[in-house]
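Summary for the funding panel

The consortium committed to producing paired sequence-structure records for every protein in the target list. Below we show the first two records in order, beginning with the earlier of the two.
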Amino acid sequence: MEFQHISVLLHEAVDALSVKPDGVYVDCTAGGGGHSAEILSRLGPDGRLVLLDQDPDAIATLHERFGADARVTIVQTNFSAIHDALQGQGIDRADGILADLGVSSHQLDTASRGFSFHADAPLDMRMSQSGTSAADLVNTCSQEELARILWQYGEEKCAKSIARNIVLARADKPIETTTELAELVKASIPARMRRTGGHPARRTFQALRIAVNGELDHLKTALDEMFDCLSVGGRLAVITFHSLEDRIVKQKFASLCKGCTCPPDFPVCVCGKTPKGQLPQKAVEPSDEELSRNPRARSARLRVIEKLKDED
């Protein structure tokens, strides 16, 4: 199986990890292995790389690509379970952890996965290929819940109109394909609003994908778990692709870098709190050269934090 994916901010992300030849590293969303291969190229014979992914297609590809390398361990799991995954391999701490939160090109371009509004396919969107699908949500959620999902996860201004029309349409027959949903969304948005912002179904599909896969909840858990799994001096690099997840990463990193919480008028610190982490660099965006090669990278942001100490 060929799991095609163009790795975004490839060298910037791996450079940020400051890979040590004998270190332990984790690619939490390994996908097709682009970032993983770059990390491996910088590891020596005593280095170790753990690859995590929840997608069975990605796991199969990772075994084909790296299965013969004794330095590599491959685990099928969501990255929010990194602590258990590492413990299962006898690893307490890692020197660097990478998470690329983007949907892979393979997932987007494989029509049968149902992630894209550009091809007619079953309305699926499950990264793990198990559990509740997008079709399940569209056909069973209340109008109010659908509107909440579209607004909260897609920032869709026409969320109420789209939700109302989904409920009306499914009363006649279930909404089963990507094309059916995309056309319904398009008809729910005023013509003047369809002239900008790309395909009118883009925000709806993003919202449903996030809801189906519990992406933001997993991310919040994963950030705590990943930071906890770092060795002191280790680095966590996260690549985000939309404002919702980038805001979560930015706020979490800021909280980890925050020290004293005493009121400003206190003459001396009495809380004794010191920062757990520091930001070794500012957020990084793709270069114009990268965007010319891969337009899908346009919204990507790389944020990095370095661990200063363990929990008190």
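The next record, for a separate protein in the list, is shown here:
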Amino acid sequence: MSKTNIFLARLAHEAAVLVTVQATRGSVPRESGAWMAVFAQGAVGTIGGGHLELSAMAEARQRLAGGSGESVIRYALGPALGQCCGGDVQLFFERVTAADITVLQQRLTTTPTPVALFGGGHVGHALVQVFANLPLQVTWIDSRDEIFPPQVPSNVCCEHSDPVQAAVAKLVPQSRVLIMSFSHAEDLEVVAACLVRQRLLTDLPYVGLIGSQTKWATFRHRLQARGFTPQELAHVTCPIGVPGVVSKAPEVIAVGVAAQLLQTV
């Protein structure tokens, strides 16, 4: 369950103060729009932790207890709170109840970034677990229908496609594509389908292929023989993942790939 749904489910039974980062200047722990819902006991979400969050919680609970104050409070992180970030944050405080659930549902629900994951192997399985708590909507695609586990995270939808590259035409625009099927032949066809779509629609911001530089050199040669230009091939990222990660363990690869993918969001 998302933090928004957790917050709203609890709000149905008890009031809260919603604390939202309204504006920032300089170095700060969270961006504008980040929020934290403070209840009499406990909270949902975060505005960055540290003294800033502790001070905001105290202010919110004082309002829950019947106190009042300015709707927007500015916090200077260095002088006032002793945080070395050095910037300042404006926080918006609002008391909310069950009557506000519909409006808050619309306001706090964000559109997740679409991701197309081709391949249900070990790294694919590790990736969907990493993606479970990220703001992504994942379509997990494989030509083998039996490869998917019986339960997947709520933001993952499984799709059987044979041939697997046929799924590329149906991808949501702006999908980030990860290609890691059980077969190099399938990988090649998916890459080619993505490049054709990118040529026509330019709506796949990231196309990543698992593998070594040697694998990509072979693929590049074959794709050039099919008529793809060097400029088109440059759109493919291979190897995938943030540099410097040397472990080949699926769980480690998944973290590095997720980190790289988030750089495109």
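Regarding this second record: The chain has eight helices and eleven strands. The chain has two domains: 3-108, 113-262.
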